[in-house]
Amino acid sequence: MKTGAKILIESLLHEGVDAIFGYPGGTVLPIYDELYDSSLRHILVRHEQAAVHAADGYARASGRVGVCLATSGPGACNLVTGIATAYMDSVPVVAITGQVPTTLLGNDAFQESDITGITLPITKHSYLVNNAGELGKIVHEAFYIAGTGRMGPVLIDIPKDVQTDVVADPETVPEKVSIRGYQPTVRGHPKQIEKAVSMISGASRPVIYAGGGVIASGGDAELMRFAETMMIPVTTTLMGLGAIPAHHPLNLGMLGMHGTQSANYAVTECDLLIAVGARFDDRVTGKLESFAPNAQVIHIDIDPAEIGKNKAVDLPIVGDVRQVLKEINLKLTEKRVQSPWNDRLAEWKSQSIQPPAVDTGLLTPQYIVRTLSDLLTDSGIIVTEVGQNQMWAAQHYSFTRPRQWITSGGLGTMGYGFPAAIGASIACPDKTVVDIAGDGSFQMNIQELATVVQYNIPVKIMILNNQYLGMVRQWQELFYDRRYSYTELPSVDFVGIAKAYGVPGICVTDPADVKDALRQSLTCDGPFLLDFRIEREENVMPMVPAGAAINEMILGDKR
Amino acid sequence: MKPHTISILVENRPGVLSRVAGLFTRRGFNIESLAVGTCEEPGMSRITAVVIADDEIIEQVKKQLNKLINVIKVSDITYIDHVAREIALIKVSAEPGTSRAEVMQLADNFRARIIDVGTRTVVLEVTGDTVKIDALEKLLHQYGIKELVRTGKIAMPRGSKTVSPRK
Ligand SMILES: Cc1ncc(C[n+]2csc(CCOP(=O)(O)OP(=O)(O)O)c2C)c(N)n1
User: Fold this and answer.
1) What does the pLDDT look like over A194-235, one tens digit per residue?
2) Is the pLDDT score of A353 beyond 80?
3) For residue A430, pLDDT beyond 60
């Protein structure tokens, strides 16, 4: 004899969940009551949006499924942005919401919202549970769906009476999930793999374009082996950073709107583009017709719906990236040597614009990020907010491994970074987690300072404070004649705010103090806040204007 | 852009119809008709959707539909030989005298059945492909159509071919 709430908690433990992020309310009281004596660790956030972002950050840092919990109505609705964020970046999250009792469903009852309906377009799947006996099976299925195939968020909506119902004989939960309508293709088609191998061997100017799928599938080692055997240069998307170490000679850096010159030129000139777990996002391709205009395209992806969606593909391979690369690698026996194409790319790489140096006397974000990168190297996990801060982090931090880089790529959600950093830190307590933030974004979930203090979560917050909604201001500068319409943010005493919550902090205005401040923050045991008052009108360069071809970059001034 | 007839086999689960319909509306095009009902497999339903869109968009939508957990099989049967029917109920003004006789005559020509006779109206039931029902509807307009309901198209491939899950 067990209540639905008890079955839920036991099922979560059975899935190996060690922490969940949540916020209580009327319709989840039975669940919270079970949590009270449970071994499951619950982190009380200060806003439900933070709960789902934290679950997302937990998932991205660890590769496991992240879990959040919220009450019905307002609680559930506060999860929406975070669920959409996870959906756009294919992150395995299970979101559990309370619901009004089944007898009141559809009545506009107090704190009722049709959350399965609201989230229909932004979930991989969802359940409205109407029988406590099925809960165990549903939880098991939900974790399976969230964490396999193209991963994504799954929502489980549980009416209050289902939580309190006592079940004598719960449905048995089969160890192996089998769902008729859900059978992701993992292995690539052997004929297609054969063809890929011959296309790769025949290409003289090949480029690999690696995306988040490489990280999600754990395919980075196979990718490296593939690239090194064939001496193929690799460019990554924003989501693919860390798939190949920053300083690897074959790494061209990121491509797209704020990509490197070498990456964008290489893609424009290549004769074979091998897209691996990447989806030809418009921020990557720029004007589609000019994206890899002379190339044959091989596209490897677990999701058949991505293939041919934006760009016509010559050879599609549906399958798990790691598995497909492994199969390709088995067939590539002959090692290739440095070609004129490699030399050409190396030359482009050496000509790329350099970041501003420290001796200009100006406090620049590029210098700050590079200094952090030097101090932390391998041991850090970098989480970002959205805007210029995100792009400077992407461009100037030297990522050496997968899951070291956590950012909202697809939806571009401001306020994501700080709570996601909390999730990452709970998942990986042995790593130093840094939230590289903008002053605008940070203020979207600033209340979580209370959470990091309550649980002593040692997240380092690093605000690149330009007192602007910087990225929007940059667009206004370049495309709206410097008319800064509502993008200026008045100065905020972030160190004072942090102190009020109980977090130590330093405000930095002089480039000479950057290194010491960073060191102090990194060596401190608990959370720490750094408020860097950076050059206010610094821009992210290079930049491809929206709608232009990716080789039509604005390079900005060379300092 | 042309009408595509898409047959979708789904599990009978709550929300499956809105998930399917949502995939079409998300891309901003209208569903011409949508017919749902049970089918040969217990616990399953078959949806027949007619949508107007380019071939490429239909290809995308098919792939997206296939991704839905409760969708078992999706087939665009537009280009394969198939039979298609829909039923319409049409309530027409039919004053006693000549117009009533003419309506009856028309119904007969179209093999429509008269399923209700009132003092000033009759209700016709007609089955057929879209073209036939359109034609009858057009002819009946002169008498005055009071009310019209169509089921939307249902369709299946001719011969031994089926839109069933493999095996
Ligand atoms: C929730 C949300 N609202 C609005 C935007 C649009 N937006 C993108 S970047 C940006 C500015 C971000 O400013 P800030 O956090 O200060 O970072 P900076 O660009 O200055 O580094 C805005 C408003 C967004 N991405 N997300």
Assistant:
1) 999 999 999 999 999 999 999 999 999 999 999 999 999 999
2) no
3) yes
Instruction: Please report, for residues A66, A222, A302, A307, B162, the alpha-carbon distance to residue A328 in angstroms, rounded to integers and kept in the order given.
Output: 32, 9, 15, 19, 36
Task: Name the band, by pLDDT with cuts 50, 70 and 90, for residue B167.
Answer: very low
User: B18 to chain A: which residues are within 8 Å by CB?
Assistant: 117, 120
Classify strands B113-117 and A528-533 as parallel, antiparallel or unpaired: unpaired
- Secondary structure of A201-245 as H, E, C letters: HHCCCEEEEECHHHHHHCCHHHHHHHHHHHCCCEEECCCCCCCCC
Which residues of chain A are within 8 Å of residue B67 when distances are taken between CB atoms? Answer: 150, 303, 305
Say if ligand 1 is within 6 A of residue A297 CB: no
Cα torsion A301, A305, A310, A314 to 10°: value is 60
Q: Over range A528-544, report the average pLDDT.
A: 96
What value does the mean pLDDT take over residues B53-64? Answer: 90
| Residue A104 in tokens | 């009141």
State which amino acid sits at residue A336. Answer: R
Q: To test the ligand 1 pocket, which listed residue (A384, A414, A543) has its Cβ within 8 A of the most ligand atoms?
A: A414
Provide the total of helices (H) and of strands (E) in chain A, helices listed first.
Answer: 23, 20
Q: Which helix (H) or strand (E) holds B75?
A: strand B71-76
Ligand 1 pocket member A466 (CB < 6 A): yes
Is position A48 annotated as part of the catalytic site?
yes
Residue (of A162, A145, A146) closest to A72 by Cα position: A162
pLDDT by residue (tens digit) across A77-89?
999 999 999 999 9
CA proximity to A310, closest of A283, A279, A284: A279
The mean of the pLDDT values for chain A is 96
What's the CA gap between A82 and A152, in Å, rounded?
12
Residue A432: closest CA among A492, A509, A380? A380
Taking CA atoms, A90 is separated from A258, A329, A401, in Å, by: 22, 26, 19
Query: How many beta carbons lie within 10 A of that of residue A176, not counting itself?
Result: 6
Helix axes A321-331, A220-230, angle to 10 degrees: 30
CB contact under 8 A, A128 and B19: no
pLDDT digit string, tens, across residues B16-26: 999 999 988 88
Confidence of residue A354 (pLDDT cuts 50, 70, 90): low
Sheet-wide strand order for A251-254: A251-254, A234-236, A206-210, A272-276, A296-301, A315-318
**Interface membership of B60 toward A (CB under 8 Å):** yes
Q: Between chains, do B60 and A182 touch, taking CB under 8 Å as contact?
A: no
Determine the 3-state secondary structure of B23 from DSSP: helix
Q: Is A160 known to be catalytic?
A: yes
| A476 a catalytic residue | no
Average pLDDT over residues A110-114: 96
Is A454 catalytic? The answer is no
Q: Is the pLDDT of residue B27 over 60?
A: yes
